[in-house]
Structure formats: structure tokens, C-alpha cells
Amino acid sequence: MNNYLQHLKLKARELKSQHLPRFYDHFAPELAHSRETFFDHPLIQRCREDAIPFLHDTYGHGIEHSKNVAIEAGALILAETAGWETVFSRHLMLLSQVAGLLHDSCRLEADHARQGAELSRKILKDYPLSDQDKDMIALAIANHEAFKPQVPTSDPAAELLCNALYDGDKFRWGPDNFVTTLWEICDYEEWPLEKIVSRFPQGLEIIESISDTFRTPTGQIYGPEFISTGLHMGRALYRRMKQLCV
Questions:
Q1: At what angle do helices 86-102 and 42-51 cross, to 10 degrees?
Q2: How far apart are CA 28 and CA 33, in angstroms?
Q3: Per-residue CA distances from 213 to 10, 17, 148, 167 (Å)
Q4: Phi, psi of 214, deg, nearest 5
Q5: Structural domains of the chain in order of their starting residue, each with its CATH number
Q6: CA distance 40 to 32
Q7: Pick from 83, 81, 90: which is nearest to 34 by CA?
Q8: How much is the pTM?
Q9: Spatial distance between the Cα atoms of 135 and 113, rounded to a whole number of angstroms
């Protein structure tokens, strides 16, 4: 069984390397700046340390997931605010990274988005951020789930922060689902290969349903490619799993 799963994990990485979404080429400068901020900015370094105890690597929503969401939400902010005042644009990017790190802090609880929003206020209580900043971060976390009613806002910057966090999170439903998340969940649940195979078609349907939900203009252009790439990978892995079960 372990050999089969290892084979499938390697196959997933191979498929991902062959089908990288265009977002990574088209927004390479924004991603590079966001990544540099994520690793070098003292506020983000502090937030990374504070977030780790609340993240769940064993269930596919740990530090690797949160890191990717934070960096790509930050890149989306930079893409969407091209032409805005630079200091404000970069500050909004910073807030998106904090939201990205904390958005799944209550992932294993009921109504985890709203619970995570409230927890973010406690974690950020003594951070050098304004009350408005903390409100915007909490709102983005509260609004990051798919197919759930959103808490409305009349502030365009707050709405953009919400949408960038959502899209950065839902980008993970593409290739990342089959390179990281799926296997972490399977390991956590200790599912045998036969059970994974039996649940796979339903999982693919759920992933496909995300394709039309992206919220930022950039996400609406590039998000469906993340999903279609993930589905291509998933269907290839599903075929291979069925062969291994024979």
C-alpha cells in the first residue's frame, strides 16, 4: 500500500511539472515580491510563528497550504492594484498575507471561517496594525469559504482583500490538491487505496464546481486554468489508481 501511494505521489509531481498554470509566468514579478515579503518582513515572520500552533498539516491545511495562499493572495493584490499608490498597495498585500496565514486556523471546527475570523482578532491584538486593518483581515477570513453567504462590505479595499484571499485559497484546488492536500488527508484518515478510489469521482465533481466561483478579475481569468489543470491531473491519477486496484 505504501509503495502504491508513493508511486502515485511521484506521478502527481510529474504531472504538475508538465502543466504549470500560466499565472506563474504572467505574474512572476508580483509573485517574487510577495514571496520576498513573506519570508523577510518582520510582521509576517511573527505571524508565521504565531499561526503554526493553529495549523493542521495532517489534514491538508497546514503551513505549506497557508504559505501558498498567503504568497499568491499577495501577488493577486499587487496585480489588481497596479496603478494604485505603491505604499497602500504593498500594505494591502501585507494584510492579505496575514489573512492567508490565519485563514484556516480553525479548520477542524464547525463554521471554521467565522471561528477563524474571531481567532485572528485575538492573535493580532498586540500587532502594530490599525483596528481597520484587523477588521479587514477578519472579514477576509470570514468570507473565504465557497458556496457560503458573504459578509458584505462597502469598502473597495476590504472587498479586494476578501476576494484575493478567496482566490489564493481556491487556486489550491488545482494541482496542489493532487500533489499535497489529497495525500495528507489520506494519511490522516488512514484510507486504503480502494476507499480513495471509491471517493475520487465525487471529489473531482466538487473541484470542478469551484471553477466559476473566482472573485478577482485576475482570478476569474486564471483560476479556471488551475481547476482544469487539477482535474487533468486527478483524472490521470484516478485511471492509474484503478489499474493498481486490479
A1: 10
A2: 9
A3: 30, 25, 11, 9
A4: -65, 150
A5: 2-245 (1.10.3210)
A6: 12
A7: 90
A8: 0.93
A9: 14
pLDDT by residue, tens only, the chain of 246 residues: 567 777 888 888 888 888 889 999 999 999 999 999 999 999 999 999 999 999 876 666 788 899 999 999 999 999 999 999 999 999 999 999 999 999 999 988 889 999 999 999 999 999 999 999 999 999 999 999 999 999 999 999 999 999 999 999 999 999 998 888 777 777 776 777 788 888 889 989 999 999 999 999 999 999 999 999 999 988 988 888 888 876
Per-residue cell: 132: 481597520
